[in-house]
Amino acid sequence: MKPIFSRGPSLQLRLFLAVIVAIAIIVADSRLGSFTQIRNYLDTSVSPFYFLANGPRQILDGISGSLASRQQLELENKALRRELFLKNSDLLMLGQYKQENARLRELLGSPLRQDEHKMVTQVISTGTDPYTDQVVIDKGSVNGVYEGQPVISDKGVVGQVIAVGQVTSRVLLICDASHALPIQVLRNDIRVIAAGNGCTEDLQLEHLPGNTDIRVGDMLVTSGLGGRFPEGYPVAVVSSVKVDTQRAYTVIQARPTAGLQRLRYLLLLWGADKNGDMPMAPDEVHRVANERLMQMMPQVLPPAGEMGPPAPSAQMGPPAPASSGGTQSAPANARGGQP
């Protein structure tokens, strides 16, 4: 009987043949390089499986890296925003410090005489009484402040100390209705009295005849009379001149140069009443006031269009004493007597 399945070579023979073929292929590949191209084809065909197997790991790594990068970027963004905020606040303070430094420099350059004793002070409060115009400063008797001491700003005369405490003092402004200040017209050296009329109004020049030579735009400076306020500091600029022909009386108003509604830093001066200095002559006041105004900020001086005409010539000097009385005659005589 013939078997259904025919039997082939034995397993030992098959193994021997396989080993022989493998050795032959290895020798041929190493010696001849015949299978290099085949191996490349096989690698190319198998490479998609590598990508498929490595894909999940790359996806997970990318997701975790993105999450970590986002968190890190958010933290860095918050840190940078905080740093930017602090820098901006520092810049704001820097601008304020620069402005304060400029104001203090202007104040320190305000005294006309270099040997004048001076002290910077700050306004800490304004008066609450609607009938008086006063401010409170942060210097008192421990700093050597005394009653009657002159106070100026970087733009002009502010007032004088009327009450002194241990660490604070009260300053009466020149615009107060009870305050009067001896001044001098810078253009022609006429000396008059400027009285306060309330800080909402301009100063008023008192006791003036109708033919007084004062024009709109004239600069008024301290005359030094009375020995309280030093000479040559800007006080006001003439803002209006009205002549009453029936009464032969002139109403003159002047706007203070110190900006009395916006006071912050002030300068205390130890004036002639404490230093024992003699008041200057009108011509000397004129000279030093011009030097002072050349160093001050442009807003103190009136615009060129508002300045009055040039001072009258020497021939016009003699009639002035006859038409002016009291405080006005002295400077007129002084100028008229010059050669």
Q: Topology of this protein?
A:
Blueprint: H1 11-32, H2 36-108, E1 118-126, E2 134-137, E3 150-152, E4 157-164, E5 169-173, E6 180-185, E7 191-195, E8 203-206, E9 219-222, E10 234-244, E11 249-256, E12 265-269, H3 272-275, H4 282-295, H5 319-323, H6 329-336
Antiparallel strand pairs: 1-2, 1-12, 2-5, 3-4, 3-12, 4-5, 6-7, 6-9, 7-8, 8-11, 9-10, 10-11
Keywords: Cell shape
Function: Involved in formation and maintenance of cell shape.
Family: Belongs to the MreC family.
**Describe the biggest sheet?**
6 strands, antiparallel, barrel
Rounded radius of gyration (Å): 48 Å
The level-1 CATH class of the largest domain: Mainly Beta
Mean pLDDT: 75
The helix-strand sequence is: HHEEEEEEEEEEEEHHHH
The strand order across the widest sheet is 1-2-5-4-3-12
Tally of helical runs: 6
Q: What is the CATH T-level topology of the largest domain?
A: Thrombin, subunit H
Q: Regions with pLDDT < 50 over 5+ consecutive residues? A: 306-339
Structural class: alpha+beta
State the distance separating the first and last CA atoms: 169 Å
What does this 3D model show about the protein?
There is one protein chain. The chain is rod-shaped and about 160 Å long. The protein has two domains: 11-113; 118-269, Thrombin, subunit H. It has 339 residues and is an alpha+beta fold. 37% of the residues lie in helices and 21% in strands. The N and C termini lie far apart (169 Å). Residues 306-339 have low confidence and may be disordered. The chain has helices spanning 11-32, 36-108, 272-275, 282-295, 319-323, 329-336; strands at 118-126, 134-137, 150-152, 157-164, 169-173, 180-185, 191-195, 203-206, 219-222, 234-244, 249-256, 265-269.
